[in-house]
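Researcher: I'd like a candidate sequence for this fold, 306 residues long. If you have to choose between options at a position, lean toward the conservative one.
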């Protein structure tokens, strides 16, 4: 009698077969890559969103070099964090999903894994509620923390699970590469789409307020006791103004058109007033500032409306 042996194919079903060491290694790497991709996408979205807010990103060659170095360091940190969190959280969740399905006599499916992630988010919410009650933390954390856990854990757990249901070792590690490629492509797509949206005016990039002479006149303070009073007749008075070296004095002020970055405030007088202030903030809450040292340091001396 002739026996026919049917080949076994990779499957994405919920059959609870034995995974093995190589399978769990692939699942760990898949979870790590998924978490790193999530972190990268979140950073891209945050960076694009920051362009709508007050920012002073450099545009010279040195600034681009700094951004490139920062991108490499961030990628390494995301990879390291992804590997740690995948081992500490994602793999246990996938294993818990398989164990609970087996105990319940059910097939371990993506929906079952999703339910396990949801249960973990609920437990996180309970823990956050207890900590919030003891510490008086912001009630919004009771919502944001479990939602963050659910949003961050679910994709990584489902991707790691996808590696475990493959029967062939090669197919499991292909899942790692596929998740990484899709994650990178999604981040690039969002980044390019965001830049196009800003370039076409679909999303409005931040622009400093273009204060008039009438709007400039008045008292400005540095929130540390220092004030600058700009009078309508063009005179200016400084009282305890400046960074570490505080000083007082008087002089004049004018609004200049400026060659780059829009109009600015020119002060004439002694050391306290012999500076150029740029406009910042918003129309509702404008500010005046000058850079302390190299603008790449990001350190500014800022005055707000008194």
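Model: Candidate sequence:
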């Amino acid at each position: 009698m002739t026996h026919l042996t049917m080949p076994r194919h990779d499957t994405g079903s919920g059959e609870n077969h034995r995974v093995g060491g190589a399978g769990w290694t692939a699942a760990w790497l898949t979870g790590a890559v998924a978490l790193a991709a999530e972190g990268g996408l979140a950073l891209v979205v945050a960076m694009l969103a920051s362009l709508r807010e007050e920012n002073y990103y450099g545009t010279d060659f040195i600034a681009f070099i700094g951004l490139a170095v920062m991108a490499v360091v961030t990628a390494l940190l995301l990879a390291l964090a992804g590997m740690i969190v995948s081992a500490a959280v994602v793999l246990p969740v996938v294993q818990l999903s398989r164990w609970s399905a087996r105990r319940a006599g059910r097939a371990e499916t993506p929906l079952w894994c999703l339910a396990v992630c949801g249960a973990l988010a609920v437990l996180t919410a309970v823990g956050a509620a207890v900590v919030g009650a003891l510490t008086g933390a912001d009630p919004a954390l009771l919502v944001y923390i479990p939602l963050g856990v659910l949003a961050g854990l679910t994709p990584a757990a489902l991707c790691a699970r996808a590696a475990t249901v493959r029967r062939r070792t090669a197919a499991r590690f292909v899942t790692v590469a596929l998740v990484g490629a899709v994650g990178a492509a999604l981040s690039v797509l969002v980044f390019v789409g965001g830049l196009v949206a800003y370039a076409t005016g679909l999303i409005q990039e931040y622009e400093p307020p273009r204060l008039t002479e009438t709007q400039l006149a008045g008292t400005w303070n540095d929130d540390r006791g220092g004030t600058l009073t700009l009078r309508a007749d063009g005179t200016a008075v400084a009282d305890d103004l400046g960074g570490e070296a505080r000083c007082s004095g008087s002089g004049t002020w004018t609004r200049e058109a400026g060659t780059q970055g829009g109009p600015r405030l020119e002060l004439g007088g002694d050391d306290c007033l012999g500076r150029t202030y740029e406009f910042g903030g918003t129309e509702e809450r404008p500010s005046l500032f000058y850079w302390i040292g190299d603008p790449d340091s990001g350190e500014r001396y800022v005055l707000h409306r008194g």
